[in-house]
């Protein structure tokens, strides 16, 4: 095995303040982890848990008092391990469409006869980890495959702008055509937003905004999000899935706090009914769905509460936190850990504890009640690190959590390799500040060259064009990479109060 | 190893309440037993809970507290309605916990939907216990009617049958109303005395009356609607007068505020409220203002004057009122409103300014005339008289300073039968109100207020409206009277009350001070205009300030200024690289500073802002601090005047030095990075002039160059540390390189030895090959020899046969026995020779196989070394 739970829970230790244990585990991992094993692993899970966990541990290791190498954060033992693990996944991306297989053998690559059907999230949940890897190591291959996979999904969306649940990565045919925001799709949307934030990438954001429009149009009913047929938009399942509860948190990141809060309050009522969120909840019937009554202590609702609490400071969110603590403590605590709730109707327990309980649920719950945690840093404190590539400002807040709750410091992405050219440019400009004869007019550079180059090559894929009139998108003058400010009534939108738009 | 399909049932339920608790805890969900218990008690409260539910756990204590106070009259039963083996879970289906149900005998369940706080629960239980108030006397009637909450009265004559007809229905409708309206905002009373009933013109037993303060009161239309509990309740709810409403959000998703605030501008008044307390002077005062505000038909007061303030006179006055007044108010059971005005007492100029003010209240005692018209404001004569009475007495106003109340009784000039009681109390804090009499109003210039939001200079002698700490004087609203204002203004306010014990968070978010211990706050919220105004918290929340607040809002050129909420948790810190700006420091930091200012609008929750932190930190560290400020403002926590607001985040504004009004916005379609920001600043910060160089210019130049030098020095410092980092990295590399070289040498040596071994092995193999060839040769030779031998033996055999034939022929010829024996012996020796030759061949073959084996092993060894 490759010590999955240990890697997954590593940064939780630091966020909870247990520095010594963090250091011990880092040493254990360096000695004991081997990826050269004949094991079939999920490409998606390995990425979010192992690669993500190692990357965040690597970036936090200085904060944890570990003596780092000179080249840190651009080199280090944990980074090398992350890179090694990621390289094991690269063979899965060798498909005609660029969309990866779901499973890969760590030793032999893709098994002959492997099924080509992968879920949407299994294709579009790489950009955060892989772009970070590329920026830190200087090897662009990771970011490139992740982007290629994202674009392939974008190209294959339906005419009404939705994506299904499973797709054949060889033929690009949709195998499961249910469209929604939950299981099978969830982290695809999440990574479009988080990728856009992390990389200041307009292209990813415009993709998300297009999807967001379609989702609002076809799946949203009374602040619930249902499942619809991806080509026709007809409702196929009127259920709420426990996994969907990440959505309000995501909305709050892009400034849609009102809608986020309204949906959150809906989800919270389900929690109040059962003391947890069932995997499926039938909305019209107001009850669980057969065979989907379990609650494996998933983090999504608590995650959303944490994000929303940042935005609203609404005590209702702390109440959910209190309820979650009580539920977990009263229902699922057993001698050796916290057990999965097999059935929410009678609170029968299963003989397992999921890895995400330690990695995510505990972490988000702790962060909800600890507003002074370094993770919530608003930029008022920061670290300066001297690297061979120059001076770096790090740990200035704005951490982007991957979908397994591993925080990535966005500043670290600007720290390695490409920096030198920018530094000389800055130095030249600084000279201008001190000269009296200022005559030159400077022209500002457009958005990051990456997306520009890509879209120039492949103009048909540029999302702004498929999304409608080109003039329209230009008229819409505000930057895609921004949030709307909150309206006046948001001052009163606490303790369950919601406001309707006049528009 | 763990078994896969092993599950564990949920733990068995245990006691939720302690065994000593007055609450009966049916933790196994015995609903049948709960129903059985209900038969023994008149009033029962059921508390349905789930043991894992945080809200149930929180409410447990509150219910226990109520049970401790009421257990002698009410039965408290808690039922675990979660355990799936329990009866309760099987029969009831709740969507949330806890659920509180009340039963009044057989009537129920009445669900309690209010806040889970002991006082509110207790109040509700008490209402269920006595849904009707018995009005036995006139004073009780007045008491009942004076309440701000709508009241329904029934008149029943109890002398006839054991229970008059319709009484039970009326009683039930009172209980019924509690189902709809957990607050019990509609009070139900029953009159049993004919004379009392006549006061409100009820003559027939069984008639029901809805009291309204402003509109005409109603009598239940028996002929139009059926006389049922539901109908009475519905009728009362539909027709009740809501002069002032309590807002009590229940915590779940709700549109309550949305619906109420969209009706128009709203005055929200936050007061700490205890539902159990009988008297609430502040609330009475607010009610009075509300009544006045809505009292549109001044000439025709619809109702008897029912303002009845116990026996002390006025709620604003404590018991230190003089005896004379006590007597008076006892004699005449109904007193008029006190009218209050704030006056400056001129002879106290020597004392501090704040104590120079007196709130003068006049209680006019009248004969018992319930239909009397109100005199809400003291008229000039009254004030004059009151003042005179004070001055004449030449009292020393020690008590005034120590915040006690001075009262004086005097006769009215024109009515010898009425007394006035004039009381003076110091107005606490900065209540700087000036004379309210009409005399002064004429002397004051009318002040028209320019548009708000700008800090202009003021040439008025009166305190300028923009000055936050100054109270807006009465004189601005001269001529405006609050009575019936709601009908005269086009900016009608809806009035709401909120319990600050439960909902103070709204007040805080609208700008109430977090530090204050007194949780009183009043604000006017206009959702449509997206503004709100705040009654200065330094003023005490009393009727008069509230009145002024309303008046100021209503007049055409409202002197009220949009309140800007700022974040009090931010402290100005010079050490910070990026200056944190708030509403209060915005103007100083941006406009008054002698620097170029780059201001970032952000919000902590916006992902796109937070990921730019490091860029702004770098920028702030880079720019010369003497000429540039990099600042930011959290726009969610800090309001700004409209002209500085933005609708997207992040927004970057640059305010060039000396041209602060010409701020420029960083273009949104460019990516925010260090070079772009620097270029942006460079493009907009340069001085426009290209004037010939003067001394001044030279001086500037030197200053600039000095700045440059220091910048370069910093840069050198940075480079040095970078170089040292590089050196370190270099050293590390060096070490690694030498290590690698050593490794290489070692490898080479290994290679050499391996090559040598290889050579020897090759030699060996050649040698082996040679021997093999040799052996092969030998083998061939041997084979040849063998062949020869075989040939020889064959010829020998032939010879043998020939010999035998010869012998036989000889035998035949000779028949001699001795000769036959000889020939047999020679044949035996020949066959021995033959067998020895065949063993030799076998050994040769074995050797050959062995040779091949060794060659093969050599090959493979060579391969490995290669």
TrEMBL record, chain A:
Ca(2+) binds at residue 403. The active site is at 45 (proton donor), 186, 279 (proton donor), 300. Residues 447-471 have a biased composition (Basic and acidic residues). One of its GO terms (molecular function) is mannosyl-oligosaccharide 1,2-alpha-mannosidase activity. GO terms for cellular component: endoplasmic reticulum quality control compartment; membrane. Keywords: Calcium, Endoplasmic reticulum, Glycoprotein, Glycosidase, Hydrolase, Metal-binding, Unfolded protein response. It is an enzyme of class 3 (hydrolase). Its EC number is 3.2.1.-. The keyword Flavoprotein does not apply. Signal peptide: none annotated. The keyword Hydrolase applies. InterPro entries: 6hp_glycosidase-like_sf, EDEM1/2/3, Glyco_hydro_47, Seven-hairpin_glycosidases. It is found in: Endoplasmic reticulum. Its cofactor is Ca(2+). Residues 447-483 are annotated as: Disordered. GO terms for biological process: carbohydrate metabolic process; endoplasmic reticulum mannose trimming; positive regulation of retrograde protein transport, ER to cytosol; response to unfolded protein. Belongs to the glycosyl hydrolase 47 family. Involved in the endoplasmic reticulum-associated degradation (ERAD) pathway that targets misfolded glycoproteins for degradation in an N-glycan-dependent manner. May initiate ERAD by promoting the first mannose trimming step of ERAD substrates, from Man9GlcNAc2 to Man8GlcNAc2. Seems to recognize and bind to exposed hydrophobic regions in target proteins. This is alpha-1,2-Mannosidase. It comes from Psophia crepitans. The lineage of its organism: Eukaryota, Metazoa, Chordata, Craniata, Vertebrata. The gene is Edem2.
From TrEMBL, chain B:
It holds the Pfam family TXNDC11_2nd. Keywords: Coiled coil. Residues 844-866 have a biased composition (Basic and acidic residues). It comes from the Eukaryota. Residues 823-866 are annotated as: Disordered. Residues 709-799 form a coiled coil. InterPro entries: Thioredoxin-like_sf, Thioredoxin_dom-contain_11, Thioredoxin_domain, TXNDC11_thioredoxin. Residues 563-686 form the Thioredoxin domain. CDD domains: PDI_a_EFP1_N, PDI_a_PDI_a'_C. This is TXD11 protein. It comes from Psophia crepitans. The gene is Txndc11.
